[in-house]
Amino acid sequence: METTVFRGRDAAMRIQTEEIKPRVDSFRDKTGKSPKLVAFQVGSPGTSMPYIRTQQRSCARVGIEYDFVELPMEVTEAELIAQIEARNADPDTTAIILQLPLPEHLEASRLVDAIADDKDAEGMKPANLGRVVLGDYSVAPCTAKGILAIIRDEARVALRGREVVIVGNSDIVGKPLTMMLTREFATVSLCHIATTEANMLPTHLQRGDVVVVAVGVAHLITGEHLKQGAVLVDVGINPIEGGITGDLDFETCKPKASFITPVPGGVGLMTGTMLLDNIANLFERQHHTQLQ
Predict the structure, then answer these.
(1) Do the beta carbons of residue 62 and residue 21 sit within 8 Å?
(2) pLDDT digit string (tens) for 85-130?
(3) What one-character DSSP code corresponds to residue 154?
(4) H or E element, residue 142
(5) Residues 6+ apart with CB under 8 A from 183
(6) Cα separation, 180 vs 151, whole angstroms
(7) C-alpha 67: how far from chain center
(8) Is the pLDDT of residue 278 over 90?
(9) Suppose 234 and one of 33, 188, 197, 248 were both cysteines; which one would form an S-S bond, judging by CB atoms 3.0 to 4.6 Å apart?
């Protein structure tokens, strides 16, 4: 059986240039404005700088303005919330993102909560998560949204009735992805630490037509755990000497797979692309009367 290895850069570039950029061009033609993403960074970006540069380049590629706001490490929570609220009130700001990690004296959940629902670039506010439950993925957690696109549009899986196993029940991947896949009438098993404690993870994995792994443990899943012909999506980003690796043991999993995403070069590129899609959709919400 031949295995298809997902080419994340090719898919991301196609979506950005053929789908998102034409929409942004149309926005500019009809409203005289372009979407704008405001990114707050507390302290020096450090190891986050490559991710920030990728955001900047991707925004420029599709015509989204990018406003990078770097604040001192000692900024207080009240000061940062005031900055966020000022951008909430700014009609030229389409979306806001808070770059992580934050210093220990700042509470990420309170700061994210300060972002207005209609400027939530990452789709993590309760109102936008509620829309996901109801089947509206226009502004949704970027990684979950990207994984759905990979499974449905790139791997071409007809999800109705398929067994999907998700390993990892995080708020940004496992839980929202479960809702999305359930809306597609897949049968979803969401596995977590208690699944492992009950020694049931191999049982679930062996019946998975699609397996998504988002745990953050290098090479957690090996080929012996998997069904022949499975579609495998690796969300893990684990530092190793000389680079990063995923949660799948790629060399033993690939022979079992009909389709597999590599690390690097897989899900991460789609996550960034779905951020752009969220921003375009927020712009549509904010300017719907002008765009009719």
Answers:
(1) yes
(2) 999 999 999 999 999 889 999 999 999 999 999 999 999 999 999 9
(3) I
(4) helix 142-149
(5) 135
(6) 12
(7) 21
(8) yes
(9) 248
**Chain centroid, CA 40 distance in Å:** 18
pLDDT in tens, 40-75: 999 988 777 888 999 999 999 999 999 999 999 999
The answer to whether 267 and 147 are in contact (CB under 8 A) is: yes
Pairing between β-strand 36-42 and β-strand 95-98 as defined by DSSP bridges:
parallel
Which H or E run includes 58?
Answer: helix 49-62
Q: How far is it, in rounded angstroms, from Cα 103 to Cα 42?
A: 8
Q: Which among 44, 40, 122, 134 has a CA at the least distance from the CA of 86?
A: 40
Collect all residues with Cβ–Cβ distance below 8 Å to 217 and sequence separation of at least 6.
Answer: 236, 238, 247
The answer to whether 248 and 224 have CB atoms below 8 angstroms apart is: no
Query: What distance in Å separates the CA atoms of residue 148 and residue 277, rounded to the nearest whole number?
Result: 14
Phi and psi angles of residue 144, each rounded to the nearest 5 degrees, phi first = -60, -45
- Amino acid identity at 10: D
Residue 12 tokens, joined: 């991301």
Residue for token pair 């309170």: 110
Q: Say how far residue 171 (Cα) sits from the centre of its chain.
A: 11
The bridge status of strand 95-98 relative to strand 187-191 is: unpaired
The residue written with tokens 């109801």 in the block is 134
pLDDT of residue 14 exceeding 90, the answer is yes
Burial class (CB in 10 A: 0-12, 13-18, 19+), 67: middle
Where does 43-180 show beta strands of DSSP type E? 65-71, 95-98, 163-167
